Amino acid sequence: MPSRRFADGEMVMGRWPGSVLYYEVQVISYNDISHLYTVKYKDGTELALKESDIRSLLSFKHRKSQSSSSSPSRRSTSRSRSRSPGRPAKGRRRSSSQSREHKDDKKKTIQENSSALLVLDFCLKPSENNTRSYNGEPDSTERNDTSSIILEQKLKPDLEIERVHEHYSLRPRKEEKKKEEIYSEKKIFETMKTIEKASPKTKELEFGGRIGTFAMIIFLPATVFYLLLMCKQDDPSLMNFPPPLPALESLWEARVFGVFLLWFFLQALFYLLPIGKVVEGLPLSNGRKLQYRINGFYAFMLTAAGIATLLYFRFELHYLYDHFMQFAVSAAAFSLGLSIYLYIRSLKAPDEELAPGGNSGYLVYDFFTGHELNPRIGSFDLKYFCELRPGLMGWVVINLAMLLAEMKIHNQSMPSLSMVLVNSFQLLYVVDALWNEEAVLTTMDITHDGFGFMLAFGDLVWVPFVYSLQAFYLVGHPTAISWPVAAAITILNSIGYYIFRSANSQKNNFRRNPADPKLAYLKFIPTATGKGLLVTGWWGFVRHPNYLGDIIMALAWSLPCGFNHILPYFYVIYFICLLVHREARDEHHCKQKYGLAWEKYCQRVPYRIFPYIY
Which of 59, 285, 528, 545 could tie 196 with a disulfide, CB 3.0–4.6 Å? Predict the structure, then answer.
């Protein structure tokens, strides 16, 4: 086994991947298996480099001394040649050929000066060179000393000509600086894409790594079944653990599984209907944009018409309530089979189509997080379809079934006020998601996470069967609330929904078209990736205002269930834990992606989710 050359904590010069730039970095750790050094740049960016891409500081100082000692003589020789007095004068007027030669020499000198200027621009660290303060002005105090960087880079001919034109233009210097910054940001973005292609392996494992993900594959289904069994008990107290387990043969019924398959493929048929507009998603690592058909709301309307038809012909929809556990088992079995299929097909997928967070090389981890980013069968996008269709719409159908079951079991002509509130609040949430379907294309689920067991189980099992927990609880444990209490809960849900929707709208509109005149009031911090970090509106209030709105709405959904048991509030507790985990994950991802720009954003917006608290 080869021995390592550089020690932890040692300051060295590391080559920026995909370029010839070397920067002063600190060695953080060394992987004995992959033989890669994890180094940290001055802006906080951490990358894994090969030993061949790292050099000692002494070698750079030696090269610098050699270049500095030899360059003056060359410059003086060049200067003496260009200004030699021994050239004979042939009259006052120069010939046309001499004039052209003089212009060419002048143009070459300008190009050389411009090339030197570009070298100085690129000697700055990528994340620092493009970080500006929130008002959009360049921050000169963030630029590092680059005296130890050795760089030889040539400009492309078209860029050289552009520099020449800029030299003779009468445009303000501020406009020229802005153009140079835009060009530099584009170069950095291209470099970052090269890094993603050059190092596709997932180095940082989430969810506890291989052991943690293996435990979650078992823990998540067990949690769903535990919650459903507890809701069936007369006293769903945590002290009554464990609940009585049903016979294994009672958990499976072929007819129930057939109904689930019918529901799944019916939604797939609605997804394939040629209605609704077709939009492009965000650029992938290879620059390609996938196309998506936006027809989720139309599918919801067709589903509602189908449910209304079944009720008209007196179909007993509370069949869902009577076989709720069996439906959950069927959905879990289907999601497991789908996850196995997704992992097998991902083994043949090209590297550029793999998920950045699910390409670790460990079977269990990649199976859980998702190995392939956007698995498709033709134009049918499996992840995008499962994200909003069968599970989210199934949630609404289950809530309706619980409402009808409550009326039948308790011999009521009208549903309880608590059940009406739960159904109404959650229906609004689902309709909003389907109406703003295009916004899901900018979420991490679509742009970053692969499609594996985590999303398959979450979309098809967790969402419909855990999110409907309040309605399922109210069937067996009816809770009466007064109209003033109902009005207060409605106001709370409205506040949460307003924060959630307005924050997401600001973010999605800004991502789609930052130059929209309607968004001119928004201030942002430009970053090296070409994107901006909003520091006004809801995103200047807390870093994740959409999470704040989610938590407020989750609380409003649980309050109609009263305070006799904590079980209906499991969703609130889970949601807080989930969003805190996502927030920490987003923080880490954004710090690596945006560098010093993210640090400036955190100083500008100190609170993460809860203002003045967290």
Answer: 285
Which residue in the block uniquely carries the two structure tokens 């689902």?
A: 430
Domains, the chain, in order of start with CATH, read: 10-57 (2.30.30.140), 210-480 (no CATH), 481-613 (no CATH)
Q: Which two tokens stand for residue 191?
A: 């470099």
Instruction: Collapse the DSSP code of 25 into the 3-class scheme (helix H, G, I; strand E, B; otherwise coil) and give the result.
Output: strand
For residue 436, report the phi and psi dihedrals to the nearest 5 degrees.
-105, 40
Q: Maximum Cα–Cα distance for the chain, whole Å?
A: 115
Per-residue pLDDT tens digits for 96-137 = 444 444 445 544 444 444 443 333 333 333 333 333 333 333
Size of the chain, expressed as the number of residues it contains = 614
Residue pair 436/429 in contact by the 8 Å Cβ criterion: no
Task: Give residue 559's identity as a one-letter amino acid code.
Answer: L
Burial of 120 (0-12, 13-18, 19+ CB in 10 A): exposed
Distance between start and end Cα atoms, the chain: 47
Structure-token match 């269709």, residue found? 389
Report the relative pairing of strands 380-381 and 524-526 from DSSP bridges: unpaired
Query: Cα separation of 518 and 487, whole Å?
Result: 34
Rounded-to-integer distance, Cα 216 and Cα 578, Å: 14
Mode of pairing for the β-strands spanning 376-377 and 291-294:
unpaired
**8 A C-beta contact, residue 596 and residue 43:** yes
pTM above 0.85, yes or no: no
